Amino acid sequence: MKTGILGGTFDPVHIGHLKVAEEVKKRLGLQNVIFVPAGQPWMKSNKTITPVEQRVEMVRLAIAGHPDFELSLSEVNRPGSTYTVQTIREFRRKFGEGAEIYFIIGRDGLWRLPQWRSVGQLIKLCRIAVVPRPGFSLPDMDAMEKQVPGLSGSVVLLDKPEIDVSATEIRRRVAQGVPWKTMVPAPVAEYIKEHGLYVR
Ligand code: ATP
User: Fold this and answer.
1) Which of 4, 64, 120, 129 could lock 30 by a disulfide, CB 3.0 to 4.6 Å apart?
2) Domain membership flag for residue 192
3) How many structural domains is the chain composed of?
């Protein structure tokens, strides 16, 4: 079994997430990609985030019709702050030692990886698949390896896709009345409109 895990705040889920999941699945020959929305993300705990039920619903809508994409409520259902290492440990237990698990992140995430909780354990539990992100260069991997021994052996660097979309930009556009609908799947755009999300 070869599986990808895409964790995120998904506030909202957007075409960047879907293209990333599609590309990594294809390139690494994954059987599926599991989307794991964060409950209350510790990295963003000082910001206002859309209620989890709505973020989950948007992911549900976005992946409907993609038979190889799944939704996991693992982090949503865990009380308190959740950390990727706990999530991956759970998947490792579920899928067994033989499974190949790839945690998928954008290059923005790679820069922050050394600060993640128990990153040394995380990279033993899974490999980290890193996709490009416009505006983010690759960090110096030798320096990263010094901070987190074993990291460079765990990381798989992909050179595609390059999608210039972020949830921050979508929220900004909705609030300012600038066109944004092509940045999310159509049912997600409907949901955002219907629920008046991101309108200040
Ligand atoms: P925000 O702008 O609110 O920080 P985001 O667009 O980065 O949100 P998240 O839900 O935080 O979306 O992202 C989940 C994961 O997907 C992260 O690892 C992030 O790096 C990655 N990701 C999101 N958008 C892209 C993109 N356009 N290209 C590559 N990776 C992306």
Assistant:
1) 4
2) no
3) 1
